[in-house]
Amino acid sequence: MRRTSLIAFATVGIMIVPAATVSAQGVDTPGDAFRSGPASAFASRPADALAYGGTWGSKAGAEFDREWTNYKALQRSRDATAIAQFLVEKAKDGRVWAMREAGAFYAGRFGLANHPDKALYWFHQAAINGDEQAAAVVGTAFARGIVVEQDEQLARFWLQRAIDGDDRKTRLDAAKVLASL
Question: Any coiled-coil ranges, and where (predicted)?
Fold first, then answer.
């Protein structure tokens, strides 16, 4: 299996940072590597709240809003362990937004982690649960052989799911990768 420590997921602007080091707390942190914070690709609160099972003003929407506020506070704290624990707990509870955010976190978002296998795992979980942005990331990984063996059939499957989604940028990015196959 081909593995790499530098992964570019161009479809959503994430780059797993190279040259990770281990901090005193045992958390992977990059040195002076490129860091990306694709806030525009992952900050779609209204869509996530609706997908969460509610509408704005509903009990489910209010719960999502509390979780999102807590998540944003953890981001400001830059406590990688707390962020990871929060996201994984919410993802295991079935929160698709948390699965996608966990993938982004482990892919190097905020420059606090660099775990390509975990990143792809969580993106895959989000894609399985209907997240089109995550489907584009998974499709790109299979198309380019990033973390996993290159597999054109799986790449086409996931990229088509991204293209079938509502997000225009995701559709365009996935279509570019699909056209390159």
Answer: none
